Amino acid sequence: MSLRPRKQKFKKQQKGKSFNKITKPFTLNILPLGSFGLKAMNSGRLNSQQISTMVKSINKIIKKTGRLILRVFPHIPVSKKPIEVRMGKGKGNVDHFIAKIKAGITLCEIETVSKTLAIKAFQLAQIRLPFKTKIVSSI
Questions:
Q1: Is 0.90 topped by the overall pTM?
Q2: Can you list the domains of the chain with their CATH numbers?
């Protein structure tokens, strides 16, 4: 279950400005869709593989007692040249897709009644992410 966009105007993209600026995470504890959420404390990149493993680990715990709402999607293509290829000869092919995550963004939400189940699911998801996260609740 690799997440990737269906259509794109351009196949490849430039890297852009650095998004890893040292800023405090903004504090918005508004969860419009769920009762518990997973909030990023640092900025970073999430590739489609990391997002899908996070979703699988959460769904394994909550099963049918709750609903998972994903708030991030990997839209940005990252290209990579094959191993042992000489310099030049243009840009490489698209290797994977990423989502740029700023500090303070809610990654996903769970709409459930059971608080212990939601916390357990998010703790499993936190292990699989490459940056610090925090569990927030609207209750």
A1: no
A2: 36-81+92-137 (3.90.1170.10)
